[in-house]
Amino acid sequence: MTAATTHALEVVDLKKAFGGLTVTHNVSLTVRAGERRLIIGPNGAGKTTLFNQISGDLRPSSGRIKLFDRDITQLPPYKRAHCGLSRTYQIITLFPGDTLEHNVTLGLLGLRPARWQMWRPIGFYSDLATEARRTLDAVGLLHLAAHPVSDIAYGEKRRVELAVALAQRPRVLLLDEPLAGLSNTERSTVKALIASISRDTTLIMIEHDMDTALDLAETVTLLDYGRVIVDGERDAVIADERTREVYLGV
Ligand SMILES: Nc1ncnc2c1ncn2[C@@H]1O[C@H](COP(=O)(O)OP(=O)(O)OP(=O)(O)O)[C@@H](O)[C@H]1O
Ligand SMILES: [Mg+2]
What we know:
Layout: E1 7-18, E2 21-32, E3 36-40, H1 47-55, E4 62-67, E5 70-71, H2 77-82, E6 85-87, H3 100-111, H4 122-138, H5 154-167, E7 172-176, H6 184-195, E8 202-206, H7 210-216, E9 219-224, E10 227-233, H8 234-239, H9 241-248
Parallel strand pairs: 3-8, 3-9, 6-7, 7-8
Antiparallel strand pairs: 1-2, 1-4, 4-5, 9-10
The chain binds adenosine-5'-triphosphate and magnesium ion.
């Protein structure tokens, strides 16, 4: 008898149609616990739409999503977060007028079933602030904790987004183009940060910057026109003729 493999995420026949436009056509994926998966594909391939369905921001037209063997297809996003799923967005979604510390704390509060409640002991909120500061320290931004997000550089905002996601101690983390728009220096910083994420967290990352992202990936999925074209070990996918045709344009 063989031991069962633990799947962190299983996506089965996921389809999303907007009116007559089908954006993901029966996409199926299996990601092992602890795996580092890179998702690539041309603009409009359906990568973000796939993430939106996994996170619950979009309801699939059909198909199933399982997180550690639990079917989460019908769960709203905050319940998926309770199950250990966390994500960042292609477009920054922080509250610009709020401090870094408050943004991370709000992310933590969003995770809790009970939100702001006056009767809670004051220690409850100071625990959250401590956790927020610990995570800001981990992304190298503790010195800016009291600054509003609107005052900091773009690359730093990307790191705050990572802090918001990491503070929830996710078991599966979806990163949508975490390196987009960064300078070379910022890219190295964010790349090192992603590389340092514990194996207790399974990583699934969409990224166009192949030079940087391939170093972080063990497995790669190529999407095109909403379909999985190639999927497997990184080197095999990169060497595959279909990858060259679709993504590398050769
Ligand atoms: N809410 C929506 N309503 C209608 N069409 C949508 C919606 N969201 C996405 N689409 C369409 O779905 C297709 C895939 O978009 P998606 O954002 O998933 O692509 P992507 O692979 O993430 O691209 P990029 O690399 O540019 O980020 C596009 O044609 C887009 O216009
Ligand atoms: Mg996208």
